[in-house]
């Protein structure tokens, strides 16, 4: 039986009434998702949901929801993914029970959390971490997993070790040797935990790959992943039983593959094997970037990388064992595997895990799991928050309490600020706190997390002028009344121990609010891609790693603006356009090299649409429809994802650069402006215009870079002209007062002629005749110049004794009354500290950089105690002073200053409460807390308390 349905057709009269309605629901949903199919849509009970209709997982779950609502049935969410045709859905509907509302309710299991417990601070490997937990609280709940039957499965640390040892014994029996790779192609569940840790216990390297959505796709799925398995030299594939039918096919393509087995076949209960020696620098994980089927890139992550990353992320969140992490994120994705599971394991946080399928089918269950388990940490990509907004109805969340949710992270795909604003508005009445929103940034090459915002800060959005950003790459703040603005979300500061920078195409570091390539480094960073030296070479720029993202930095926050290589992120999965473009270009009827694949923001779903713009000389409806079908099938085979829209356009429509490269950004602009598939004589004029428009910003950027370079040389020239005369004058004047007068005047003159604007605030805090110990954050070599030029009165700087070894600096600083202290000889250091304290007692005001040094990365370093001891002993107040902007003008490691503004803020003085060490410590803590409030940089000495 077949039904044909066009825009105005109705189901055939021979179909059962239930089937007619079902096909009508499918028809309407297809046209919503793929408008280009209008007028040529064929739907029957045997139509394939993926190949013929382009339904992805989200589309299928949406269809399942509409079926349940229309027919009043409760269908298992698995049918939404496993069904190949409407006929399969019809069979499931016949077996479903009416109502079915109870089918979507999880059997909640209460968690009992005691006092905070310690974490394995000395563990160096993932196995050390597991052993520590087993030894200290082996019977503690580690994971609560809601299986496909909606029942709870509980896993303790001892249970994880026992199950992993059993599976490791099976791998050793298969002949697995240390350092060999084992692919894990399993859905989320207990078997995944046992398999991953079992591979490590056997000395292997786990390689997660995502499982097929439907059993009927296993063969095609494995064929697409053959390149990954070949690159990884996979010895064993652990998967579901249904995949074993494709073993012969896969073994023919993957030379090193020895066995395809299930966890049950590997399990050897009660059998343990001797562990191989595992070091921190051994590989613990290969994370293949999703979509990389053509040129597999397996990110190499060691035990040291992963341990550093989970420690840094948890430290940022102030996580401990009193938290509860609720997750639906799949374990084959790095956010679910490392961020949720391994991060929870390290801090002994119970992990409440549900299937991604459960979340997609019934997203309200994510919220109810947070409610019942008092979940404090949870999150996902932007589309998951959008799904909650679109799918969850008020009657489904009556009585919901989200007040325990203190960290709601959003990452893995572009963060849409409007989504998070609407999410906060919608769920604030249910106890959700706006300050829980945490837009984060990470990538596989940094293990998973790279930047997190300060704990409890909430959403921060930068509104900038669209024209300035588009033409010059400058993120200039827009006025509140400006209607034509761009919005970018602050994704936080680099995790402790990590650094980021933004560079231009020549590799020169840019200043704040200038867009460029984002690079990073740190202990979580990969050493490269597995057995792919070419891709590895392109990953590094010296000691820095290329993120592939465009961004700008403001006040230590990272603002992502786009992806350098135009990777499309769809529902949390990366799609690489060049692979699909090349394949489509080989189709008969398509002009090779004239295909653009790009992502367009989908406001409805909160993720990205996959768009294909391809040139063809065909013009008959039948030929065009055949080409569309071929493109859709090719996309599904290559990427495992259908396209959302196919635009077939005349020759010379797809924009290119002068060297013949596809300009995806301009193609996206054409699409969003409403380009049609009809032949228009003026299309080439549109393309020329777009090309010229695109060249203008590039020329402006070149001019901007040249101007910056010339400005830096001008700065150094002015410094070179005034410095010798200033030194001679200061050396010859008769008094310290004269030396300060000359130096201050020259400093102000230098700042004025270089147009370095300095804003001074808080001068009212300086009382005439009062001595102070001024403590200032240290960010740049310019700090001393700015302070000398702007601070009124006479001051004694405290400087390192090494400066006395240079005649130029020693003479100049001595004439200004600088006091020198020893940093390395402890006995001399104590003597110097006493001398400085006596000077403070005598009524001299001191200026101290309590960090002792500065570095290129933003962040307030730990404070030394010397200045605070002097203030406490002398009984004089500490005056905290905050410098902002000097780091951007002249960053450590750079010699050419940039244009910029400086803000110098004098805060309220803090009087000591008594003398001695305790009073000095209190002074330090109070001053540091105040400076952190104003400095706009992360705290590199500790984390704020949890609330």
Quick structural summary:
The chain has 947 residues and is α/β, with parallel strands linked by helices.
Tags for this entry?
single chain; 947 residues; alpha/beta; Non-ribosomal Peptide Synthetase Peptidyl Carrier Protein, Chain A; Rossmann fold; Luciferase, domain 3; 7-stranded mixed beta sheet; 5-stranded antiparallel beta sheet; 30 helices; 36 strands; 38% helix; globular; disordered N terminus
Explain what the structure shows.
The chain is α/β, with parallel strands linked by helices and 947 residues long. The chain folds into five domains: 17-104, Non-ribosomal Peptide Synthetase Peptidyl Carrier Protein, Chain A, CATH 1.10.1200; 132-451, ANL, N-terminal domain (Rossmann fold, 3-Layer(aba) Sandwich); 457-563, Luciferase, domain 3; 576-680, 2-Layer Sandwich (GMP Synthetase, Chain A, domain 3), CATH 3.30.300.30; 712-935, Glycerol-3-phosphate (1)-acyltransferase, CATH 3.40.1130.10. Helix content is 38%, strand content 18%. The chain contains 30 helices and 36 strands. The strands form eleven sheets. The protein has a seven-stranded mixed β-sheet with strand order 30-36-35-31-34-32-33, sandwiched between helices. Helix 17 (417-427) links the parallel strand 14 (407-410) and strand 15. Helix 6 crosses helix 7, helix 27 (826-841) packs parallel to helix 28 and helix 28 packs across helix 30 (917-935). The longest helix has 50 residues, at 683-732. Mean pLDDT is 83; it is low at 1-15, 100-104, 678-683 and 943-947.
